[in-house]
């Protein structure tokens, strides 16, 4: 007669021996272990193994938001955005104030061009992110992408107020605030001050010159705009916005041949730049 009890006891013994052996050689035996190994796989961009381990972590601890967030990141890295979004949603169902998941979902929705959803997640993140958090810098970038310019400027200001001008990233943040104000077409005096300070820190940065060129274009300072764009293009010839902005300034000054040549060069580099610029009321 087949002894079901004996078989069950033997299976349990084998499972126990296996767990003991796994522990002895450092293999995962619990949710935290699978999460750690899955995260290590993800760091090496081995997303298939990362997803397998993080799935096991989610199965063993279905109430732990961080495991779903980590698996979502692995899915996204593996070019599976729908599954990534489902995991970020689950992480936030479990823990609505989970800042990393809010920002990850905002990033993913930005990639999906869902600007309203981006702003909703950023507004939630803004209520819980510490004032000094570096996350506020990324939040500023996402608000700017979504067209929420005052919110973007406020986040950049938060970062600058708490980190100071001596921080290694201060030039980049000053430029981002300058560029955001320039796209918005508001607070142009403050935008110019930001770009001037960024360029004082990094005089030969073509991105910063490009931003100041747009500020000066907005202010009707066409000769100065052309000078900034020309300097930027000498440093980096393939900046589409510099070609386009210089072309607009040239056309407004009656320099038709130069202006059309620059705009053609911009479109060659970035085919939809004219449409994008028109959305911000920038054009000849």
Describe the structure.
The chain has about 280 residues and is mostly helical. The chain has a domain at about 30-95: Alpha Horseshoe (Serine Threonine Protein Phosphatase 5, Tetratricopeptide repeat), CATH 1.25.40. The protein contains 16 helices and no strands. It has helices at about 5-25, 30-45, 45-60, 65-75, 80-95, 100-110, 115-130, 135-145, 150-165, 170-185, 190-200, 205-220, 220-235, 240-250, 255-270, 275-280. The longest helix has 21 residues, at about 5-25. It is elongated. The model is unreliable at about 1-25 (pLDDT under 50).
- Shape-level CATH architecture of the domain at 28-94: Alpha Horseshoe
Spans where pLDDT lies below 50 across 5 or more residues: 1-25
Strand count, sense and barrel status of the largest sheet are: none
Shape: elongated
Assembly type of the shown chains?
A: single chain
**What's the CATH topology label of the domain at 28-94?**
Serine Threonine Protein Phosphatase 5, Tetratricopeptide repeat
Determine the mean pLDDT: 90
What's the CATH class label of the domain at 28-94? Mainly Alpha
**Radius of gyration, taken over Cα atoms and rounded to an integer in Å:** 26 Å
């Amino acid at each position: 007669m087949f002894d079901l009890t004996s078989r069950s006891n033997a299976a349990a013994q084998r499972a126990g021996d296996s767990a003991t052996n796994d522990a002895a050689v450092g293999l995962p035996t619990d949710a935290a272990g699978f999460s750690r190994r899955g995260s290590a796989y993800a760091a090496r961009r081995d997303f298939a193994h990362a997803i397998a381990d993080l799935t096991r972590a989610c199965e063993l601890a279905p109430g732990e938001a961080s495991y779903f967030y980590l698996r979502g990141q692995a899915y996204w890295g593996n070019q599976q955005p729908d599954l990534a979004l489902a995991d970020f949603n689950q992480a936030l169902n479990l823990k609505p104030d989970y800042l990393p998941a809010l920002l990850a979902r905002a990033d993913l929705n930005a990639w999906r061009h869902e600007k309203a959803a981006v702003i909703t997640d950023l507004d939630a993140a803004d209520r819980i992110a510490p004032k000094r958090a570096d996350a506020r810098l990324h939040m500023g970038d996402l608000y700017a992408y979504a067209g929420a310019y005052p919110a973007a400027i406020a986040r950049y200001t938060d970062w600058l107020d708490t980190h100071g001008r001596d921080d290694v990233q201060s030039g980049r943040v000053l430029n981002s605030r300058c560029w955001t104000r320039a796209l918005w077409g508001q607070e142009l005096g403050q935008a110019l001050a930001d770009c001037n300070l960024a360029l004082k820190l990094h005089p030969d940065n073509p991105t910063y010159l490009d931003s100041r060129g747009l500020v000066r274009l907005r202010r009707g300072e066409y000769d100065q705009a052309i000078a900034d764009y020309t300097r930027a293009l000498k440093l980096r010839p393939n900046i589409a916005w510099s070609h386009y902005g210089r072309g607009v300034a040239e056309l407004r000054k009656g320099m038709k041949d130069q202006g059309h040549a620059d705009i053609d060069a911009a479109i060659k580099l970035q085919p939809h730049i004219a449409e994008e610029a028109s959305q911000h009321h920038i054009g000849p």
